[in-house]
Amino acid sequence: MHQPSTVIQFRWDNSYAERLPGFYVSCAPLVVPNPVLLRFNSRLAEELGLNAGKIDLSLAAQIFSGSELPAGAQPLAQAYAGHQFGGFVSQLGDGRALLLGEVVDCHGRRRDIALKGSGPTPFSRGGDGKAAVGPVLREYLIGEAMHALGIPTTRALAAVGTGELVMRERPLPGAILTRVAASHIRVGTFEYFAARRQYDHVRALADFVIERHDPNLMGEANRYLLLLKAVAERQAALLAQWMLVGFIHGVMNTDNMAVSGETIDYGPCAFMESCSPHAVFSSIDTGGRYAYGNQPMIARWNLSRFAETLLSLINDTAPDRALTEATDVINGFMSRYQALWLSGARAKLGFAIAPADDEEDSLLAQDWLDLLEQHAVDFTLGWRRLADAAEGNPELLEALFPSADALRPWLERWRRRLAQQPTSATAATAATAEAMRAVNPIYIPRNHRVEEALASATNNGDLILFEQLLDVIAHPYDERPGLEDYAQPAPREFTACYKTFCGT
To answer: At what angle do helices 464-473 and 447-460 cross, to 10 degrees?
Structure first.
């Protein structure tokens, strides 16, 4: 029996629960035997209107484990479907997550607060609904890394050990994540009701999303087509950012695509090291469907599934016209993604001003990626060391290649392009290098560092490596003395056999 707690007081405003009956199942989290707070995100707590300095963290473990419910919470499991690896599953839903409610943060943004790993729900499909320490800390770490990189993402408010074991390949210590999101509404949420031909529910959901994420569209006669365009724009921007830092989501099913444009559901995710469009680390992606280079096309495919759910809303009297208009949006996705990617790549290359014709910069950027791939150069360090070359010190960049000769032809082209900048920001200026370092990270969550931190936490209950890595990735663009090892790629033998797992 859950009693309302006053340990932490949220200013709830639970619009999803109150306005969308039939879109969820009310469900309470399990009471866990011995909750212990592993990590609390005090800065995020302050954003949410919580006075982190006055929170008793030992008592807060009861809240963030779900053993006590904060007063006003309305825990519920959201219903959704999804295309998983291209195949449609008509019912998925929150199998191990519960939405506690919503708050409006100190910036006026509405945020979901949810538990992940809090026990089974009616959507669990035979699963235990629980999570282990490793996957919980992975999601905490990668989410915070993405936030520090400036990429829209869900975030972790807290991680709590449960004091029990969960069975995976072996018994593992259990944990629960408190996740904060702009919303948890997915493409799969729309698919759930469209598949059941509950078009009144699709309309209600679309209106809810417009009010929450695109209020400027309220009252527009063609608002559902404009909603499709808005979601496509957010996904194009998100995918461009992923690709520019070498992030691989690992499981881009439609139930893992949020209409808010945030990165959601960090399971078998990883950051690419040696540059390759074929890079895959997920143990379940045996066919490479979600490989690094495929991600923009998969986003387009997922958006097509979203568009299908909206067709009757876009034009219910002229279905052919609705199909044409929706198809135009989908067909425009790749060009919009490419434009956003090129804009980001141009900044990473040090070009402050775009030329009249994008072709030269596009070719230069693509040739750079091809060069990195050809010589198996680390993606992050390759981009970062360009800044040193911009200052006239190419030695660190050259050291990444088998010889300076392999790099020289491209480098000469790049320097000529830098010299075309209409201001004093030429190849030899510190200003150019500084601007490049502001968009080319030196620190990412290196896969071997992530794994050693999670292994230490799982096997020994020791979070020192986790805390150290969290501190490093919190400032990804600022090169700091003493952290040189954190910038180095994993040993090749590690990467050659590296696999990531969902944690379910």
So the answer is: 150
Q: Name the residue among 88, 102, 137, 144 with its Cα closest to residue 116.
A: 137
Q: Which of 255, 265, 285, 378 is catalytic?
A: 255
177 close to 152: Cβ distance less than 8 angstroms: no
CA-nearest of 229, 476, 238, 477 to 341 is: 238
- Coil vs helix vs strand at 237: helix
DSSP 8-state secondary structure symbol assigned to residue 294: G
Domain extent listing, the chain: 4-184, 221-331, 348-504
Instruction: Please choose, from the candidates 491, 453, 487, the residue with its C-alpha nearest in 3D space to the C-alpha of residue 470.
Output: 453
Q: Which of 141, 138, 121, 132 is nearest to 163 (CA)?
A: 132
The whole-angstrom distance between residue 314's C-alpha and the CA centroid of its chain comes to: 29
DSSP class of residue 234 equals H
Pairing mode of beta strands 110-116, 97-104: antiparallel
- Greater confidence (108 vs 3) lies with 108
Q: 224: closest CA among 109, 322, 119?
A: 322
CA 50 to chain centre: 24
When pLDDT is cut at 50, 70 and 90, the band that residue 189 belongs to is: very high
Phi, psi (rounded to 5 degrees) for 70: -65, 140
Pick the closest to residue 90 from 79, 82, 99, 98 (CA basis). 82
Q: Does the predicted TM-score (pTM) go above 0.85?
A: yes
Q: Catalytic residue at 255? A: yes
Q: Which two tokens stand for residue 495?
A: 């990467």
Question: 113 with 103: CB under 8 angstroms?
Answer: yes
Who contacts 214 (Cβ-Cβ below 8 Å, separation ≥6)? 226, 227, 230
The phi-psi region of residue 261 (left if phi > 0; otherwise alpha if psi is between -120 and 50; otherwise beta) is left
Dihedral of CA atoms 206, 212, 213, 219 in degrees, nearest 10, equals 60
Tell me the backbone φ, ψ of residue 216, rounded to 5 degrees: -65, -15
pLDDT of residue 230: 98
- DSSP letter for 68, please: S
Mean residue pLDDT of the chain comes to 94
What's the chain's length in residues? 504
